[in-house]
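sorry for the late reply, my laptop died twice this morning and i had to redo everyting from scratch. anyway the thing you sent over, i finally got around to it. pasting the sequence first so we're on the same page, its 233 residues, then the predicted structure underneath. double check i copied it right bc i was rushing
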Amino acid sequence: MKKYVAYYRTSKDSHSSGRSKAKGLGLEAQKQIVEYYHKDSVVKEFVEIKSAKNIFQRPILMEAIDYANKNNCWLIVAKLDRLSRNTVDVLNIIKQLNKRVSFCDIPSEGEADEFIITIFAAIAQRERELISIRTRHALQIKLKREGPWQKGNPDMKSGRLSKLAVIANIAKAASNENTIRASEIIQDKRKAGMSYSAIATLLNEKKFSTPTGLDFHPIQVQRIFQRTNSLNI
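ok and here's the structure:
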């Protein structure tokens, strides 16, 4: 009989409020789905309270993959987008586990079918893009109603940006796939000990550019790293 390692993920805000932004699929809902299909086969559970899009910023996921490999288990998730909405990341995880991955929302009797998974992952990735579009649209309406953020905005406390400015930063990052990938590289390389200057050179060599179409500089890399950490993107 197959042994399963269950991986559950929800954001910090969703966990504290008891709900999830993923169409109501909170932690308890994910557990109920997994238990419905494999209640007696789950040997260990891993719960991650984090909203990072980059899979390498999810230490609990890395632990779950490592445990599954060492114990010849299958990794199971309630819904594909709880693993990732990035097609490349999903296929990477499937490869790491030698296809021993099961998604409750994708019928399968055996090893993960990479062709079918690619289709579903592409749909999830498109949904992330649509969320970005809706976020930008909502932001535009909010800006028209409340006006642009100003330095003297009374909402600014302890040197932090106002809530509106934070929303703007999130929407801007989410709307630019180039920025998302660059942010992931910056996070990975900084954790590996690479300097901001070296990362900027690497990004420029790989033909990445800033949202305004310019080359990266060390100070920009540092700001992206700090902003990404503070927002858990």
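Residues 15-24, 151-161 have pLDDT under 50 and may be disordered.
thats about all i looked at so far, will dig more tmrw
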